[in-house]
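SAMPLE LOG
Freezer: B-3
Tube label: C17
Construct: single chain, 312 aa
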Amino acid sequence: MSERIDGQQRLTRVLAVMRELKPNTTIPIAELSERTGLSPQTLAKELTILSLCSGDPRDPLSFIPVLVDGASVDVFGQMPALERPIRLTSAEVAALIAALEIAGVPSEDPLFATLTSASSPGARIEDVERMVMASSAASPDFAEVLRRISLGIESGRAIEIEYQSAGSDTPQRRTVEPTGTLRDRDTWYLRAWCRQAEAERTFRFDRICDIRVTGESFAPRSMTPAGSPLVTEGLPVARLRLTPGLELAEAQWPGLKVVEQLADGSSLADVPFAGHAWLARQVVAHLGAIEVLGPSEVREAVADLADDLLGG
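STRUCTURE (predicted):
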């Protein structure tokens, strides 16, 4: 009786076999059987099916270059499926980035930019970011902090937090009325009305030492629309050239202003920045759609990062 497997199982099996097929070699099927754990009969069948696969049935050169010849298989060219760079959808990139962040991989790791550069053409970085609810500088308790903040927002209940301010030696306990979260330059923030300050405040997730949702409800307050939690006034400014049709989200580019539309459809924009590394990652992630015109040190940071990612 012939073996019955579904499409996913067959795909997994074929991909495992393809990893063992080196270009321009003749490999005994018995040797492949030892490497893959598949029987010689099953291998011969799968390799025959593989040899009939083509990216374009009208082009004989696009068929996968394998040929079963008795007890061996001839690989007489490059594997077409492995020639092209990997392309991922926005959802796939989001899932991988979320997994890395939850595992504690720092946002400075080149793998983050590499994943973004592997995204499908047309996938916008802000679309990916909206799907990834994780902090690039997240503490191990990030998921729990986010869960409790979300619970407070959804239920309309106040939250008590112990917060380590940058200028304080010890954490301070505050009662806040949460209204939302936002991300700015690789850092997640809680937006809330602080009862101690009697004003709207933003709190970095990674400085929240303890958090609990109280049983106390609160009435919505009139607050400013969500925006950048960082003050951009006084920061150095970079001049960018954006390809025609490219629009950048304010959430990802705080303070960015389009200053001129050019005849070819491209535009010039100014964006304040606090660090070369952040701006370089933002530019490189757009896969050539943004050119830094100045200052020179930012151009150099972008060039260095791109060179590193390309293995230069």
